């Protein structure tokens, strides 16, 4: 049973949130410096954080993250990374909803034995319960995303 390719796009809310937060930090910086010139280091820190937040928000708006599913695996592209990251269904055991901190949750996965990349991230993730994690902020809920990923994984396993 082969499924049609599917694409998820990162929600624009994250980009808007970073931009608004950055703008607020710049406003706090201006207010802090205006009220008390002696507080210029704090104002400078707030301005730097604000500009970084606005830059991040604009970058995420212009190049949102894409998650593309097909019969071979899935690809993460866009966002802050200039390179696509590919994952094969044959390497993955299952997907699940992972909540490292409440109230947030992420789509996570575990590799089949012997298939995990031998890098620090995979070893660190294994100790925390997830060997791979997808970023938050998709246009669907985490639970719906995990359900869809497991459907594609199941279809790929039955085709193999």
Model description:
- This protein is of the alpha+beta class and 160 residues long.
- The protein has 4 helices and 7 strands, in the order βααβββββαβα.
- A 4-stranded antiparallel beta sheet has the order 1-2-3-4.
- The longest helix has 23 residues, at 13-35.
- The model has no long low-confidence stretch (mean pLDDT 87).
The termini sit apart by 10 Å
**Looking across the biggest beta sheet, what order are the strands in?**
1-2-3-4
- Quick one: how many beta strands? 7
Radius of gyration, in Å, reads 20 Å
In what range is the share of β-strand residues?
15-25%
Low-confidence regions: none
Mean pLDDT: 87
Profile the largest sheet. 4 strands, antiparallel
Order of helices and strands: EHHEEEEEHEH
How many helical elements? Answer: 4
- Class by alpha and beta content: alpha+beta
Helix content: 40-55%
The shape, in one word, is: elongated
Feature tags:
single chain, 160 residues, alpha+beta, 4-stranded antiparallel β-sheet, 3-stranded antiparallel β-sheet, 4 helices, elongated
Helices and strands in order:
Elements: E1 6-9, H1 13-35, H2 40-62, E2 65-69, E3 73-78, E4 85-88, E5 92-98, E6 106-111, H3 120-128, E7 132-133, H4 142-159
Antiparallel strand pairs: 1-2, 2-3, 3-4, 5-6, 6-7
A few lines on this structure:
With 160 residues, the protein is of the alpha+beta class. The chain has helices at residues 13-35, 40-62, 120-128, 142-159, and strands at 6-9, 65-69, 73-78, 85-88, 92-98, 106-111, 132-133. The model has no long low-confidence stretch (mean pLDDT 87).
């Amino acid at each position: 049973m082969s499924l049609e390719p599917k694409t998820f796009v990162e929600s624009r809310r994250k980009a808007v949130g970073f931009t608004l937060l950055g703008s607020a930090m710049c406003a706090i910086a201006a207010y802090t410096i205006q009220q008390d010139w002696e507080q210029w280091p704090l104002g400078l820190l707030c301005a730097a954080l604000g500009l970084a937040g606005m830059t991040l928000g604009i970058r995420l708006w212009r190049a949102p993250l894409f998650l593309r599913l097909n019969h071979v695996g899935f690809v993460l592209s866009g966002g802050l990374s200039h390179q696509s990251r590919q994952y094969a269904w044959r390497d993955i055991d299952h997907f699940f909803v992972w909540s490292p901190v409440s109230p947030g949750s992420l789509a996570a996965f575990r590799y089949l034995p012997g298939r995990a990349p031998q890098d620090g991230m995979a070893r660190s993730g294994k100790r925390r319960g997830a060997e791979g994690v997808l970023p938050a902020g998709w246009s669907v809920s985490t639970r719906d995303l995990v359900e869809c990923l497991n459907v594609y994984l199941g279809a790929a396993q039955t085709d193999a």
